Structures
1.
Amino acid sequence: MTDVIAVSAAAVILVLIISAVKKTEPGIGGVLSVFLTVWLIFVAASLAFYFKNGLYVIGEGAVGEYLPYVLKSVGIGFLSQTAADICTDANERSAASGILTAGKLGILTVCLPLIKKILETAVGYING
């Protein structure tokens, strides 16, 4: 919890500094903005690593079988949303829309084995 608060406070302060720099030096401000985004992605990835380890401890047994699908889907969702946000900030809304569509299809692709198991189970119950 304190890590998230500290990172959020640092990010807000850095955004204010970057906004001030962009007014006088737009090029440098843009580069600083990219560095801030990359830093935040690394921070989020390290937090996700700890989260994943905690989930594997919880997910032992029947739930653990489905955990990789959930983690892959969440990862695809975060990455595609981040990429789409970057495109939106660059006024490339059509590219952002395409990225989000590709992310959704990627999630569906990752989940195909789960969908197959659900359908097999349903057919098994129907056929008795």
2.
Amino acid sequence: MALTRDFKTTIGARVERDPAFTKAMLDEAVTLFLNGEPDTARLILRDLVNATLGFEALAKETGKPSKSLHRMLSPSGNPGMDNLSAIIGALRKTLSINLKVQTVSVA
């Protein structure tokens, strides 16, 4: 039988040792939201929160209850724009990441 690692453990370890990976996860989540794929974006944000600041610290940072944040970033969640902005802002602050939006023409 093959040895396997827990997905959360794997993501957490990679986030700890690879700042570029962490930035890419946040960038991908934002890009997915902007391109109309909120379901996948929420899951990436949830994994990133779990691997970095955690939901309790996110609750303190955003002023939202942690249970509400868990629901917002669940597969069936539906965070409003204000909440989404607060979540992304808290992650950016914690990770010291700046995002830059660029438009790309699709031919």
